[in-house]
Structure formats: structure tokens, C-alpha cells
């Protein structure tokens, strides 16, 4: 071993023997537990005691001041054999009315309203409306025979006879 | 020191922080004492190191050992104290005086061996005091704290190659000066 290495090793031993004079953790961490005291349970409990007390008081106040009202739950009654179907009295087994949806279909008025609203220029529409029957007449079927053939005649006469009747063929 | 304690300390557990500080207080103090050469200033630097260590601990990423990382903080504190007049810098320093003058507890050699050992320590103390700051730090970390090259580099915040070169230069200087003294 060289003299340098021997001296360094000797210095290292002396170096490692040096200790900090005191408890540094206690100096820089005032609240830190000392090295000898390991149990922190009671200290923690006493530190949390006010918090636990406050929480319990809040729960108690909430229970006392809780609003009370009629129960919204349906009443269920137990029945004997005579009225066994009425197990739940809140259910209407035989309703008196049944809601049926109704549809209101818009339709043309039977007459032109009189007086007409002033803001609507209806002269042209009035004429068309009054002449509505005349416009429909050309496309309406021309029914000459007002009597309707009986159903009992249909098997004997056939389709040709029926067509002649409806098309006003006098020969029929 | 186990990882669980380090993690708990990072998360703010006072008990874990106290265990860490008690585990590291001696290396911090030795480092400060060897770089500052004064017991009171070394104690002050150690306290400052502990304060900074606890402040920076939540940001510790575990990229190096916590001991190595904290020694880097101790080195920075010692450097600042040496350079800042407010912190007592500018004084004539006699590095390694304090620790080599303290008797080690590990062995109690014979009077002759103890005298020779003390003489070697005095010589080493004298030559170490003449080294540049970076070489002195490298020698202390590498040979007195017995850190690896990588840990020394992490503590000095430099590359491992820089540590090797710095230590090599320091040892060459020490050999030359010890040869002159011998």
C-alpha cells in the first residue's frame, strides 16, 4: 500500500468517526417526535378530539332538525280470503274512466265566416269557395240510376250487368 | 434507508422526515466540516442543508440515492457559505483540520503508531488544504465518504468522466506534495 493510500485510509477512518453534535431533526423539525418516543397514537387522538366532537354534534343537530311530514309511501293492507284481490288498495283494479286519445282534424267551415277578417283579402277566395261545387261537378260520377242493385242479384247478373247499370246503359 | 421511509418523507410524514434527517445529519456535518473547517459554521451549514433538503424533498425523483442527492445539497450550501460574506465566507480555511484532529473511535493504536498516524494526517491535511475546491470535494466524496464515481458525479452535479479526471489530478497533486514533504 502506497503512503498516499495509507494516509487517505487513515483520514477516512477519522473522518467517519465525526458525529453531528446534537439532534438535527429536533432542531429543524420542531414538531418531529424525538428519537426515543415511538408511540404517536394518544397524541394523534387528542389532536383529533375537537374534530370528532364537532362532527358528532353536527350529526346530532341534523337528526333533530330533520323535517317531518306525511309519508308518501302507499298503504298496503293485509286482507283475508273474502277480499283477497285487494292486496294493494292504492291500485284501481276497476277504473271508472279510461283516457282515450282524441284527434281534432281541421276542416273547412261550412260557410264563409261573416263578417270576414278585414286584414284578409278574400274576394278571390270567396268566389272560388262559392264555386267549389261547380268545380267538383265535372269529376263527380254521373249516377243515372238512383237505385242500388241488391246483393242477391249480383251472382245472377254478373259484373257486366253491374257495369252497364252504373254507366247508365239503358239496355241493362 | 428504505424506500418506504423516503416515500413517506416525500409525502410529508414528519416521523419519516425526522428519521431521514437523523440518518443524514452526520454525512452532512462531516462534509460541511471538511469544506468549511469550523465547527460552528459546519453546524450552521448542516442546519441549512437540512432545511433545504426538507424543502426540496417532495421534488426528489429518485434518480440517484437520497444520500447522494442530499450530499449535493450539502456541497452547495458549503460553497455558498464560503463565498458569501454574510454567511461567514472569505475566512482563511484549513480544510480537514477539524475531522483529522478528532480522534477516531474505531481503533486505538499504540502510542508509536498513533504518533505516526497523526503525522500522516497532518501531512494529508496540509496538502488537501492546498487543493482547488473541486479537487478537494472530489477527494472527500470519493475517498472519505467512499462514494462511487457515479454517486460522486451526482453529488457534484457533473459527469462521471469529470469526476475521474478531477480525482486523478487531485491524487497526482497529493503524491507530488507528499513526496516533497517526505
Describe this structure in words.
Chain A contains 6 helices and no strands. Chain A has 172 residues and is an all-alpha fold. Chain A has a domain of 31 residues. Chain A starts with a helix and ends in a 6-residue tail after the last helix. The relative contact order of chain A is 0.03. By secondary structure, chain B is an all-alpha fold. The longest helix of chain B has 23 residues.
Structural class designation of chain A: mainly alpha
End-to-end Cα distance of chain A, whole Å, is 147 Å
CATH superfamily of the largest domain in chain B: RNA polymerase sigma factor, region 2, helix turn helix motif
User: Spans of chain A of 5+ residues with little confidence (pLDDT < 50)?
Assistant: 36-43
Query: Helix- and strand-based class of chain B?
Result: mainly alpha
Interface with most residues: A-B, 30 and 48 residues
Helix content range of chain B: over 70%
Q: What form of chain B results from the Cα inertia axes? A: globular
Shape category of chain A:
elongated
Strand content of chain A: under 5%
Q: How many strand elements of chain A?
A: 0
